[in-house]
Amino acid sequence: AGISHNDIKLQATGSKVTVPQNDIARLMYYLSCANTCLEFDIPSRLTSYQNWSSLDIDEQKAVVVLSALLSPELLVGKVFFPVPSDCELLGNTSNEFYKLTESSHVLAVAGARAVGAVVIEGKKVEVTRFMLMSATWLKNYWIDPIRAKMSLLTDKARRDSVRTSGRFERPQIIYVRNNDACCGSCSLM
What we know:
Oligomer: single chain
Strand order of the largest sheet: 1-3-6-2
Helix content: 25-40%
Largest sheet: 4 strands, mixed
Order of helices and strands: EHHHEEEEEHH
């Protein structure tokens, strides 16, 4: 151990964007935001939300699957932090990115950092920034579009299930659990 005195400063790093009014574009923007916070190397083709209409059906499915994999359940409280929509740090937007900068005085405790890592699918992913978001942002860029586009996956599962078993059993899909780590207003249950 050791004694440390760190000055931690927040630096807003976001910019205003316009996201097309399309569910795939919105999920691509969600992935773009996740990729901004994590060093996850999501292919730019899946995060370039302005070019959503150029994706083929398999790429659209990849956007949906990756959005489900990087669900708010995984990211809220680690890199996405819910705040009230009137929070001053949002700066009249529904989300804002921040970078933590840290300058150490005296001795730092080994391993102490302003940003850290998240484990996703067994892979340690560095957190480079974090994002503050309103409940409206989460609803617009993940909850509503993932609900609408899960059919890209479940329609195929339904057809495959009917073909193999003669009947369809609806898969249980849980998007976000209503718990203390979340904003509380994003439960889909």
